[in-house]
Amino acid sequence: MTYKDLTIIITTFKSEQKIRECLSSIDPQVNIILIENSSSIEFKKDIESNFSNVSCELTNDNLGYGKANNIGLKKVKTKYALILNPDTVLSSNTLELFFEFTKTNEDFTILGPNQNEKLSTLDNHKKGEIEFFETDKIKGYAMFLNMEKLKSVGFYDENIFLYLEEIDLCKRVKDAYGKILICPKIIIFHYGGQSVNNDYANQIELTRNWHWMWSLFYFNKKHYGYLSALILILPKLLSSIIKMSFYFLISNKQNKEIYSKRFSGIINSMLGKNSWYRPNLD
Q1: Phi, psi (5° rounding) for residue 252?
Q2: pLDDT (tens digit, 0 to 9) for every residue of the chain, 282 residues total?
Q3: CA dihedral 51, 182, 79, 23 (to 10 degrees)
C-alpha cells in the first residue's frame, strides 16, 4: 500500500481555527477531499492555495456531517479512505502504521486508531501489547475504511444530521457480519468538540442539544423499534420539560433555551419529522 491507495475525507463547517493544524499534520502526498458545508468561496480559495493536495468541495448549504461525508465517499477511487474530523492531528507515523496494518490484515470494513484521544494519558507499554482487537463500534473522529467492503453495506444514513451517524454505520457493518477493528498503536489526537470556531459556541450548543435528542430517538427506533425508543426517551422528555419550566421560572434564559431545544428535538423525532433544526450563525 502507498499514498496513492488512500483518500482522506474531512467535513468542515466554520472550522477555520482548527483545519489548518489538521491539514498540516497530513503528508502532502495524500489526496484530501474537504467538504465544506457552506458556499464560502473565500474558504475554498484559501485552503486550495495553501494545500496543493486538497480539493475543497462546497455544498452551498449546511448538509450535516453524514451527508457531507457521503459526498466525499462517492468521489473516492482508492482502495481505502480515512474519515477525519477537522479538530484531529495525526502523529508523524499515523499513516505508515495504517499502511503497515493492511499488509497483514485485509479482512476489515472499519479500522480505528487508539480510542484514547488524549496523548498525554496513553500508556506506551500497554499500547504495544495488543496488535489489534475487534469491537462493535468506534468513535467517528477517525475511521479508516475498506471501501470495497463498505460499499456493500452503504455509507452514512443521510437522515441523521448530527450525532450517532458513526454508531449507525458501525451497527450496519456488524449486522452485515463485517469486522470493526481497533489498532492501539495507531495514534490520532482529537481535541474533541472544537471543530467549529469558538465565536459560534452558543448556537452550536443549542444545535447539539436538539440533534442529540433527535438522533437518539431516531437511531433506537430504526434499529430496535418505536416502543424501545419511546421507553428510552421518556425520562429525557420528562427531564427536559421539568428543567425547561424551572429555568423559565428563575429567568435563566440560556438554560431554558437549551432544554427547549432538547424537548423540540425529542418531539420532532417522535413525530417522524426530519432533522430540520440548524444553528443561526448570521
Answers
A1: -95, 90
A2: 789 999 999 999 888 888 999 999 999 999 999 999 999 999 999 999 999 999 999 999 999 999 999 999 999 999 999 999 999 999 999 999 999 999 999 999 999 999 875 544 444 434 455 688 999 999 999 999 999 999 999 999 999 999 999 999 999 999 999 999 999 999 999 988 666 666 677 888 999 999 999 999 999 999 999 999 999 999 999 999 999 999 999 999 999 999 999 999 999 999 999 999 998 766
A3: 0
**Amino acid at the residue 228:** S
Alpha helices in 225-271 (DSSP H): 226-249, 253-270
Cα(83)–Cα(22) distance, integer angstroms: 12
Q: Which grid cell is 232? A: 428510552
Contact status, residue 179 vs residue 129, Cβ threshold 8 Å: no
Q: What are phi and psi of 90, to 5 degrees?
A: -85, 145
Global confidence as pTM: 0.91
Say how many CA atoms lie within 13 Å of 275 toward its Cβ.
30
Strands (E), the chain: 6-12, 31-36, 54-58, 80-84, 88-90, 110-112, 133-134, 142-146, 180-182, 188-190
Q: Which residues pair with 133 in a beta bridge?
A: 182
Residue 44 has what DSSP assignment? H
Q: Please name the residue that has the C-alpha cell 470493526.
A: 180
* Cβ–Cβ < 8 Å for 59, 37: yes
Please give the radius of gyration of the chain, using alpha carbons only, rounded to the nearest integer: 20
Q: Using an 8 Å Cβ cutoff, are 47 and 54 in contact?
A: yes
